[in-house]
Amino acid sequence: MSENILEIKDLVVHFETDDGCVKAINGLTLSVGKEKTLGLVGETGAGKTTTALSILNLVPSPPGVIKGGSIELDGKDVLQMSDKELEHMRGNDVAMIFQDPMTALNPVLTVGEQIAESIMLHEHIPMKDAFERAKEMLKMVGIAEGRAYDYPHQFSGGMRQRVVIAIALACQPNFLIADEPTTALDVTIQAQVLDLMKDLINKNHMSMLLITHDLGVVAEVCNDVAVMYAGRIVEIGTTDEVFNSTRHPYTEGLFDSLPNLKEQGEELVPIKGMMPDPMRLPEGCTFAPRCPYATEACTQTVPELRQVGGTHYVACHAYDDPSFRLRRNANG
Fold first, then answer.
1. Going along the chain, which residue ranges are E strands?
2. Each residue of 208-244: pLDDT tens digit?
3. Percentage of residues in the chain with pLDDT exceeding 70?
């Protein structure tokens, strides 16, 4: 049996529009271990949400086309599943928490009805029994059972996100995808929701793919972290490896652009330039036009992931020079 619940290999996803081909995912390889949480980080437009939709085989077609690669969830090939198999998988085996809890909930149904709907669909039990289960799920996420009869607009943002979590966990999936689940919440509520998610994942022995742009959230929640840029993974490893032994220039740039309380008064170092247009990706390494360490080789061939220690991998041509070190680790 595989030690991973999710394995993605060489995934390519394009969106073929009237204006041209958007190359959203370009040879993505990624895995999530059983009972582990992987943080997927990167700028807006890196392809994080498209990756999540691909796992559920929900890339809108047209214009989206999965051009190649494989996705295996608990040993089953997602891209070869029939519609009936996919319906069974979504909710039972894998569930998703979306970014904005207000748009994820139906405003004309009570929250109890929305949780019960998922249970009825997958477990084929009467509405009365499903609604009782829905009350239990609300209690599990820290909401009074009596609020099952309330509508989404009667809840605060943090409470709505708890409802979305209850819906996702209603059928006890083994794998959870959380797409920036705390972005719409204030800092105090973010901490409460993250603590709740960590507690529920540990209690239910689940695995999770956490999509975020917040490195602080990754440090708090994740066992492993993958850094994504222009549809590819550029660095991956344990959270300790990536945070304390950063190897890719893009990851260095992400850390350098964050405020540091220990270095008050120091200027932040932003990553120069913008992420490339996915319709017009540069040749070779897509980060090369923004990279302070780029060489001629970087503009010619795409770097492959190479092992740099333990479970730590990086895709960067600079490591052809054994003396190469990032600024961030120059004194480490």
1. 4-17, 20-33, 37-41, 64-73, 76-77, 94-97, 175-179, 207-212, 224-229, 232-238, 306-309, 312-314
2. 999 998 898 899 999 999 999 999 999 999 999 999 9
3. 96
Q: pLDDT tens, 129-173?
A: 999 999 999 999 999 999 999 999 999 988 999 999 999 999 889
Q: Give Rg (Cα) of the chain.
A: 21
For residue 31, give the 3-state DSSP assignment: strand
Q: How many helices (H) and strands (E) does the chain have?
A: 10, 12
What are the residues facing 12 on neighbouring strands?
A: 26, 68
Strand-strand pairing, 232-238 and 312-314: antiparallel
Residue type, 227: V
Residue whose C-alpha is closest to residue 250's, from 271, 273, 264, 222: 271
CA–CA gap between residue 221 and residue 63 (Å, rounded): 34
Angstrom distance (rounded) from CA 61 to CA 160: 30
The dihedral through the CA atoms of 98, 62, 77, 281 has a sign that is: negative
